[in-house]
Amino acid sequence: MVNVCTSSFHCLLFGFALLPVGLSETSHIFCTSWRSTEVREHRVKAYIAGHEAGLKDVHALFEELDHLCSQPEGAALQNDVKVYGDVEKWLRDNRIRPPKSPFTRSYFDHQADAVTNILQASTVLKAHILDYGCGNGAMLSEFHRRGVPRTNLHCIEVYNNGDHGDFQLHVLDDPIEDLRSLAKGKLHQSFDIISSFSVFHHIPDPKTRATALSSIFEMTKPGGRLLLSDWDTEGLPILVEWYDAAHWLLWLLMGSSAPMSARYLDIGTRYQALREYIDAVEATGFQYMAELSTGSKGPVSSFNAVFSRTSSTSWFSGRLAGKENTHGKQLRNLSKSLQHKPRRHSEALPKVLRSWPI
């Protein structure tokens, strides 16, 4: 198994969400995605081709997937455990060189550039930056290499992730209470910008999500900004299934093992459309900045959504004027916006898979 584990935050976030109930042995989200012409041609194939899986010809893998998912009309689709197991074996038999992890230094440099673009160039070296769910802190280390002092760089994670000499690490033993304590205590209104890359779709529990968003607001300085980067369902149910399949497909392409049974299939995710994220974040008090936000409709549709925290003066004036966005109403709206039908969950997923930065 290839170990390219660079993030640990996801492990605890969905570990606190729901009791493990397992998935049906008849789960077939991969073949459902593959048999959608739109998803197969514009997403799955491009996703595979975009990763260096050590193959001579990715088209041979496409033919194998056609074979695995080509049941006669009316017949049941192949279940995911069988498909992923067959794909793992096929990849093992057909690789001509070791696969390469996509999580290279340039991957995290790109994240640092995205954060830098939101800040004024003259303030970057003095900025106080928090990466919520930073994994091994590679993005923060890049800022340190660029000259930002270690004391200005902070990470919130769920356990000590090794060498973090380039930044300050804050470990959450409890993702709700510990985060609240930081937000109301030593990290209150501390940061010019807070970033979060591909973390929130790994937080299926509404209470944990609500706490994360409201705490991020509390930790942002008045006038500071939030960069929330995640996957966009575009309101299409088929993308919810494809995105879970995309996680497993990436792990297999990179050399990890297939799930041994259905109880391993659920990776504790909850995907949303960009509009839902905007509503939830604005309910805490942030304001969406469309002019600075970007999106991509690649194999995995994603967005970099930028939000600004209004100054404390305007916030207080708004409350005195009796405007709608009082803090109490914001929290009620946030809780309402995060309600959803509980997703399936399994705690049995191996840590190496639970902790990739996707």
Topology:
Blueprint: H1 9-15, H2 29-34, H3 37-49, H4 58-68, H5 80-94, H6 105-118, E1 129-132, H7 138-145, E2 153-157, E3 168-171, H8 177-184, E4 191-197, H9 206-219, E5 220-231, H10 237-253, H11 274-282, E6 286-288, E7 294-297, E8 301-309, H12 312-320, H13 327-337, H14 351-354
Description:
By secondary structure, the protein is α/β, with parallel strands linked by helices. The chain has 2 domains: 9-101 and 237-264, no CATH class; 108-236 and 272-354, Rossmann fold (3-Layer(aba) Sandwich). The protein is 41% helix and 13% strand. The protein contains 14 helices and 8 strands. It has helices spanning 9-15, 29-34, 37-49, 58-68, 80-94, 105-118, 138-145, 177-184, 206-219, 237-253, 274-282, 312-320, 327-337, 351-354, and strands spanning 129-132, 153-157, 168-171, 191-197, 220-231, 286-288, 294-297, 301-309. Strands 1, 2, 3, 4, 5, 6, 7 and 8 form an 8-stranded mixed sheet that branches. Helix 8 runs parallel beside helix 9 (206-219). It is elongated and about 60 Å long. Residues 1-22 and 313-356 have low confidence and may be disordered.
Kindly list the characteristics that best describe this protein.
358 residues; alpha/beta; Rossmann fold; disordered C terminus
